[in-house]
Specification:
The protein has helices at about 60-70, 120-125, 135-155, 160-165, 165-180, 180-185, 200-345, 350-365; strands spanning about 1-5, 10-20, 25-30, 35-40, 45-50, 55-60, 75-85, 85-95, 100-115, 130-135, 190-200, 375-380, 385. It is an alpha+beta fold. Among the domains are: about 1-85, no CATH class; about 85-200, 2-Layer Sandwich (Tetrahydropterin Synthase, Chain A). Strand 12 (about 375-380) and strand 13 (about 385) form a beta hairpin. Helix 3 (about 135-155) packs across helix 5 and helix 7 runs antiparallel to helix 8 (about 350-365). The protein is rod-shaped, with a radius of gyration of 82 Å.
């Protein structure tokens, strides 16, 4: 027993098979799927319609051959296979809109076959080949679809915009359902869905081209604006970079100037410190010299004051000594005069001698006193020098 394939292409819709023409040694069997059906036609009468089953002893085999020879089996046995599942059919069309614009496209019809309507295919196979495929069915219904559905629907559209409206699709489907009911019913098909697929019209192509040009122009404008914005950003960035570099250079220059000024300031401060040190040193030396000069002057003044005091004391001592001696001499002379007078020896010669001795003694006493008529000396510093000084009391210079 072997399997028989009634459908060898996806486009095959139905096939009418004469079982008497299948002469094979082995018996043929067919497996019917859920979307496949088989109608038995025996001696011109329609028998059972089967689906989802396995047909055994469909044809061929030795026993059926013997039965045919003996006239036991039916003289005419035919099997009508058909697809009951939904299938899409694309029917090309050409038409015009109300404004005369040409329209091209496809009318899509989605149809299926009910199980009880499978025997209606015999109307087709009565005058056509025993195989019905997609192209064969399209050739049968195409002219009526164009006449009853496409042309009236296109004529109701004033412009291409109406062609794309949802109302046109609904009108197309309703027109197809009502206009194609008789033809499809005679062939055993049921219309499930109908809708048109139209190519872009000339005006739509023009509008598309215009929109493309406008989009291209807008894109070019957008690119130009983007480029200008990029240039603006680049300019802003460049200016910001130049400003930053300028600020950095200015800061560096200010830093250099600041460093130079700080260096000069440090040098000036160092020079000022050196000058202050030198001035302090000179002031110290001057103060030391002044102190030394003051000390020398004070020492000289002290020495001069001591000399003057000692001189005054010496003069006073000499004066006292002379006064005392003069008093002693005067007393002695007075006593001698009294003695001479008492003894009667006070003669003019004695008085004269007495006066000579007294005069000589005064001359001797007055010889050690300073002479007020002597010339007063002056030191090189302008200080007046008194007789008997050995050094100047102001500058300390020795006196020759």
């Amino acid at each position: 027993m072997s399997d028989y394939r009634w459908r060898d292409s996806p486009d095959t819709i139905a096939r009418l098979i004469n079982a008497n023409e299948i002469q094979t040694v082995s018996t043929q069997q067919v497996l019917l799927k859920p979307n496949e059906a088989c109608a038995m036609i025996v001696d011109g009468r329609i028998g059972d319609i089967l689906t989802e089953t396995l047909l055994k002893n469909m044809a061929g085999g030795f026993s059926r051959w013997i039965g045919d020879k003996m006239g036991v089996t039916a003289s005419d046995r035919r099997l009508l296979f058909a697809m009951t599942g939904p299938m899409d059919y694309w029917i090309p069309f050409e038409g015009q809109l109300a404004d005369g614009e040409a329209v091209k496209g496809f009318a899509n019809l989605r149809m299926r076959m009910n199980l009880e309507d499978v025997p209606k295919l015999l109307n087709y196979f009565a005058n056509n080949s025993p195989v019905l495929n997609r192209d064969g069915l399209i050739s049968i219904i195409a002219s009526e679809v164009n006449a009853r559905v496409v042309t009236p629907c296109l004529a109701s559209c004033a412009t291409a915009a109406d062609l794309r409206a949802g109302s046109f699709l609904d009108r197309f489907e309703m027109t197809a359902e009502s206009g194609m009911r008789n033809l499809l019913s005679n062939l055993g098909f049921t219309l499930l869905k109908a809708f048109p697929i139209t190519n872009p019209t000339d005006m739509e192509l023009v509008m598309k081209h215009r929109a493309s040009v406008q989009a291209k122009t807008a894109g070019t404008q957008a690119n130009v604006e983007a480029q200008l914005a990029h240039y603006s950003q680049t300019e802003t960035l460049t200016l910001a970079r130049i400003e930053m570099e300028t600020n950095v250079a200015r800061a560096r220059a200010q830093g250099k100037v600041t460093i130079e000024l700080e260096t000069e300031l440090k040098e000036l401060r160092a020079q000022e410190a050196r000058w202050n040190a030198e001035r302090t040193h000179e002031r110290g030396k001057m103060e030391m010299r002044n102190e030394e000069a003051d000390a020398k002057t004070k020492r000289a003044m002290d020495m001069f004051a001591g000399v003057q005091d000692r001189k005054a004391e010496r003069i006073a001592s000499q004066q006292n000594f002379q006064n005392q001696r003069m008093e002693q001499q005067n007393d002695l002379q007075t006593k001698m005069m009294e003695m001479a007078a008492n003894n009667g020896a006070l003669t003019p010669e004695v008085m004269q001698e007495f006066l000579k001795q007294q005069t000589a003694q005064k001359a001797v006493d007055s010889s050690g006193a300073p002479n007020p008529n002597m010339a007063q000396q002056t030191c090189a510093c302008g200080t007046s020098l008194s007789p008997g000084w050995n050094a100047c009391p102001s500058c300390g210079s020795p006196i020759a």
